[in-house]
Amino acid sequence: MSELEQLELVFYRTQGLSNKSIMSLTGRSSNIVCDWMILCQDIPVKMFEKRIQIGGPDVIIQVYECLLRGSRKNHIDFSSENIEDENDDPLENGKRNYGRRMEGPWVFGLCNGSEAQYFVVEKRDKQTLQEIIKREVILGSIIHSNGWPVYNGIAQHGYTHNTVNHCKNFVDSLTQAHTQQIEHLWRPLHLKVVKNMCGTSPDLPR
């Protein structure tokens, strides 16, 4: 394949299209598309494994934890072919997908400017989150977090720690600490994960 054809496959992969859709758009065989999709998965994994610590003296690192979840929209099929009797009520007979809550993983994120790292965590307790911070963030960095108690004591490990109480304001009036940047970066990730959880095709336009 030419470089342009290779880039085309990579582009469709980054758009979240299914293998079937990519095969249809490019005319490539299943084997070729599958091989390239595996390659596209392996490259970022290897890059992530070789990542270096972020931050540094006087560099602000925002941290935030998020439960990726959503609720399905009411989806009731009232089409005539799915109702055997005119008195057959889909709401009463289970022919519905009605507002079921979709629970996703807890994800912990660290943000250095416009760049962010995300980690799926089984627990969002003090030991788990602070171990990630110590592993990923250079000593001397300034940590900005919300006021959740699990972050208490992080300053003892060689960081400056400033918090913002979201019940009172979005930016702390004394330290100017905030988590707005990482919360903004959560949005595309949250939308993508929740959309897939709710059964929405990733092939739909964004």
Automatic annotation (TrEMBL):
Q: Which domain of life is it from?
A: Eukaryota
A single Pfam family, by name?
DDE_Tnp_IS1595
Q: Where is the ISXO2-like transposase domain?
A: 82-196
The family database entries (InterPro entries) matched by this protein are listed as: IS1016-like_transposase (IPR053164), Tnp_ISXO2-like (IPR024445)
Protein name, entry field: ISXO2-like transposase domain-containing protein
User: Species name for this entry?
Assistant: Aphis glycines
